[in-house]
Amino acid sequence: MFPLEHGKLSSFFLLCYGESQLAMLQKLELDVPAHEALLARCHEKDVAFLSSPFDLESVALLVRLGVPLFKIPSGEITNLPYLRAIAATRLPVFLSTGMCTLGDIEAALVVFEAVRQGLADITVLHCTTRYPTPMEDVNLAALTTIARAFPGVRVGYSDHTLGLEVSIAAAALGARSDPVWR
Fold first, then answer.
1. Sheet holding 70-72: strands in order across?
2. Which end of the chain is more exposed for a tag (fewer CB within 10 A), N or C?
3. What is the pLDDT of residue 128?
4. For the CA atoms of the chain, what is the radius of gyration?
5. Contact, 121 vs 180, CB < 8 A?
6. End-to-end CA distance of the chain, in Å?
7. CA distance linking residue 2 with residue 19, whole number of Å
8. CA-to-CA distance for 6 and 99, rounded, in angstroms?
9. Digit-coded pLDDT (tens) for 83-126
C-alpha cells in the first residue's frame, strides 16, 4: 500500500519515481536548439515538422520556427487563452478530442470561429487517450457523431492503436487529414 495522505499525488509520484512530476516533465522538454535541429532534419528529409505546444510560450516559439500547422493536444482543448493564441496565428489546426465532450469541442470551435470568422482550416480529430488503445475502445462511430455535430469542419482520426487496420477503417469512414498546410 502506498501512503497517499490526503490525496497528495505529488508525494506519491516522488515516492515511486524519486523525483517530482514537474522535474520529470522538465527533463523531457525539448529546448530551442533541439527544436531547431529537428526542424532542420525535417527540411532535409522533406517531412513536415509538427509539435504540440502546451503553453503560450511554446505557441510563440513554434510560430517563430515556422510550423505549418498546430496540433492541439486533447488536454488543452478547454484552455481558452491558449486556443485564442493559436487561433490568432491563422495557421491550420488539428484539434485532438480525447477525453472531450461534444460541448468541449463546440466551445473550442466557437473560439476559432470568433477569431477567424470561419472553420475552413480546422480538422477535429477523434482519438482515444489510451496508449496503445485497445480495439474495444476505438469507437469509430464517434467520427460520424462529430461530423454531424460540426458540419463546418473536417473530421479526422488520431490513431493510438497497434497496427494499421483502424486507421484504414477510419479513412474508409471519411476521416481526413488533408495536407491543407503543405
1. 70-72, 93-96, 122-126, 154-157
2. N
3. 86
4. 18
5. yes
6. 52
7. 16
8. 26
9. 999 999 999 999 999 889 999 999 999 999 999 888 989 999 99
Q: 73 CB contacts (<8 Å, ≥6 apart)?
A: 52, 54, 96
pLDDT at 13 over 60: no
* Domain range summary for the chain, segments of one domain joined by +: 69-172
CATH architecture of the domain 69-172 equals Alpha-Beta Barrel (3.20)
Dist CA 177 CA 157 (whole Å) = 8
Give the integer Cα–Cα distance in Å for 94 and 6.
Answer: 38
Residue with cell 480529430: 125
Q: What is the 3-state secondary structure (H, E, C) of 131-173?
A: CCCCHHHCCCHHHHHHHHHCCCCEEEECCCCCCCHHHHHHHHC
Hey, which residues does 94 pair with through a beta bridge? 71, 123
Which cell numbers in the block locate residue 88? 490568432
Q: Quote the cell numbers at residue 141.
A: 462511430
How far apart are the C-alpha atoms of 134 and 161, rounded to whole Å?
6
Mean pLDDT of 151-162: 89
